[in-house]
Amino acid sequence: MSNRLAFALAGTVLVGAAALLSAPAMAQQNPAGQQPSPRISVIGEGEVGVAPDMAILNLTVLREADTARAALTANNEAMKQVLAALKEAGIAERDLQTAGLNIQPRYTQPGKDRNGEPKIAGYSVSNAVTVRVRNLADAGGILDKVVGLGVNQGGGIAFVKDDIKPTLTEARKRAVADAVARAKTLAEAADVKLGKILSIEEQSIMPRPMPYGGGVRMAAKDASVPLESGESTYRTQVNVIFEIAP
């Protein structure tokens, strides 16, 4: 027998021996014919409604002028007055945040001639600020005051709970309890016995504060802006997998 043939045969024997040695280990990891244990998977929902204790206002100052510089200057002066009024009303600096600054050209409408093109007629500058009002009783008065000082866009309001941790904790408890109740119903309907919980996974947390849809321009007609805070609802979901007991 040649050396080359002997080497090839030895290699084949070694590979075969390795396969035989690894087979018992693979059999232990995945026993032949064994199927995953039967399970029940459900999604539970928990929802909690609470009275809000904070209002979030979105206010915008819009100014227009022939040049971008003039529009920005006019906007800066108006926004400075608005911010000063908010601070005077007791709003802390940590509760004031610029939400956006936008400078855009204003175009003329093209003429009837197909070749006519719109031309720049001026510029508009908008500066938006988000305000957190921690005393709900002050929200209406603050809105009324800032409209008189230059706020002429926005007006979106959301009523929220400042500290939502206790609320979300209760929502999670209700979600798990709802999942258990659903799993029991399914097990009874299928005539099987519900086993232990194999896993719990939180799907999502979706705070849903009740919005106020009125615009600032409409609200400014009133001597005092009437607001109703209503109730804020917070919701969570959990995916729970149960074992079906033998």
Give the key terms.
246 residues, alpha+beta, Translation Initiation Factor IF3, Alpha-Beta Plaits, five-stranded antiparallel beta sheet, 5 helices, 8 strands, 36% helix, disordered N terminus
Low-confidence stretches: 2-30, 211-223
Order of the strands making up the biggest sheet: 3-4-2-5-7
Order of helices and strands: HEEHEEHEHEEHE
What is the CATH topology classification name of the domain at 54-160? Alpha-Beta Plaits
Number of distinct helices: 5
Provide the gyration radius in Å: 33 Å
Give your account of this protein's structure:
- By secondary structure, the protein is of the alpha+beta class.
- It is 36% helix and 37% strand.
- It contains 5 helices and 8 strands.
- The longest helix has 27 residues, at 3-29.
- The radius of gyration is 33 Å and the shape is elongated.
- The two termini are 61 Å apart.
Q: Brief description of this entry?
A:
This protein has 246 residues and is an alpha+beta fold. 36% of the residues lie in helices and 37% in strands.
List the helices and strands and how they pair.
Layout: H1 3-29, E1 39-50, E2 54-65, H2 68-88, E3 96-107, E4 120-133, H3 139-149, E5 153-160, H4 165-190, E6 193-208, E7 210-212, H5 216-219, E8 232-245
Antiparallel strand pairs: 1-8, 2-4, 2-5, 3-4, 5-7, 6-8
Helix pairs in contact: 2-3
